[in-house]
Task: structure prediction
Amino acid sequence: MHPAADPPSLADRLIAAIRAKRPRTPVPVDRASPSNAPAAPGSRRFGIALAILLPAGPVLSWGVASWQAAAIRQEIQAQRRTAAPALATRAAALADRAALTTTAPAIADILNALALTLPRDARLAAVAADEHARLSADVATPDPDTLRAALRRDPRTAALRDIDQARGDGVILVRLRQTAP
Result:
């Protein structure tokens, strides 16, 4: 049993059509010079195909690279749109932290100034900071007026305000809180 012959491909039919339309004219041959020998018909087709395909490689590479670059740009834009709310939240938090560090003195600076300005008979009972990095301190002193006057003398402690007083064991507990700068 013989397999059925395959029908001619499109390329075979195209080559047959080109051959049918082209007139066959003999090429004069100079037998004295071998460099003028006629080229075989197949080598001429190979040369034409090579001349067409050589520039096609870089052009196709450029086309594929452009297509991939466009796809990557679209993916980046999609990721930016997805991440934008989280990035905005983070930027706002960083801006808040930067504002705290540039506008308000650090808690350690205020505590050092408080330790230097406290009257001799006053002592620090408690210290805390809230979520906005504002200082809160309880000072035990026999005379709150002397404490307030001492705090107003130093610009670093001038932002501490007396918000509450309570009687303790022979002293008055004065609660101080840092006001917003």
The CA atoms of residues 65 and 163 lie 69 Å apart. The beta strands are 123-129, 135-141, 160-167, 172-178. Residues 41-103 form the longest helix (63 residues).
